Amino acid sequence: VSDQSLLQDTVSRLDQIAAEVADPVIVCNEEYRFLVAEQVRVGGKSAGAIILEPEGRNTAPALTLAALHLSKENPDAVMIVMPADHVVSNRSAFQQAVSTGYELAQCGRLVTFGIVPDHAETGYGYIKKGEALQIDGTHAVAKFVEKPDSKAAMTYLNSGQYLWNSGIFMMQAQLWLEELVRFRPDIASVCRLSYEGGERDADFYRVDAKAFHDCPGDSIDYAVMEKTERAAVIPIEMGWSDVGAWSSLWEICPRDEQGNVIKGDVFTYDTHNTLLFAEHRCLAAVGVKDLMIVETADAILVVSKDHTQDVKKIVEQLKSDDREEYKTHRRVYRPWGSYEGIDAGDRFQVKRLSVKPGASLSLQMHHHRAEHWVVVKGTAKVTRGEDVFTLSENESTYIPIGTKHRLENPGSIMLELIEVQSGSYLGEDDIVRFEDMYNRHVEN
User: Fold this and answer.
1) What is the pTM (predicted TM-score) of this model?
2) pLDDT category, 383, cuts 50, 70, 90?
3) Which of 46, 64, 270, 332 could connect to 191 by a Cys-Cys bridge, CB 3.0–4.6 Å?
4) Cβ atoms within 10 Å, residue 324
């Protein structure tokens, strides 16, 4: 919805706020670590920490890991907790609410931000306002309410006492840990064990996987907010949307005269109220309406606007069939850059590698495949066995099976090359590393 990704928008959401804001702590699955690090870098930011979860355990454990990290560095730290898939169009209103939330958090409150509803929405949870607090415009939380049916949602809207639950929170890190010990000591103890048993891995902090595997899953709401007497809510109108489905994106994006949201190389005729996203190919739609059509390098999705929540059913099918589309994207990010699959067949595959300036792949060897490298942009420094040499654009080399090799970018621009792999097995696990600047596993 902007020139940045939703993650980058979230990281920059507190820019220009009056209060002092530390670098963000990001909690994500370890599979996304390089993508997240690159997103933060490209967005012109630095992460205070990127904490890696070996597996998802819902929002309460994720928040607890961040709180443990922050309270270790600063016992008085106040943290604002923001999911990375939200849209906030009125940033100044949000920042003003954050300043108010900081005051409440300093007074020992666990703060949530309640969105003033403008229609009877059945897809969000609600918060009922309680008594007014000393700080103007703030309230104690009377209760949290699950997603209602349409009749109940209309009742909530008409009462003026209910707010949408945004899932954004603010509190002292130490207070969160104390309240979690009160209400979910099982989560608190396992998270502390896994955090304290973790280790720094380059730009990341990797928690102890074995300990974290035993952590119960629970949300911030269920674990603490619905039970504590310290919960407070700040009503806010900030152009908020929880972009949980393609229909949500259609609702918040600018539309043309036919009600269409269009991005990419798209042609339409007699098409109405439809979202059309094309990333790699020409997309044409004729005589359709109320559809979400999304073309990416990985797959093409066509779904009725009224059934976008059911996309998860297709994901479940992909998972049960062990499909590659479920497990990985066509473009895969690594600490040195990324690679993208171009073509594949019996005993061969073709990739496009992009290596960042100053970056280096590990010194490695393959048991089952040979590789041909053709430089198409930039300069490559190549180690092949005992030989070390440089390749420029339109030059190439061959790496035989079983030969130690390394690829480096000594230049100041991105290195791009085409890699043709051939052999009896082409899986990514056929890599034996001997040296690696990113602390990935190496052979002794």
Assistant:
1) 0.86
2) very high
3) 64
4) 11
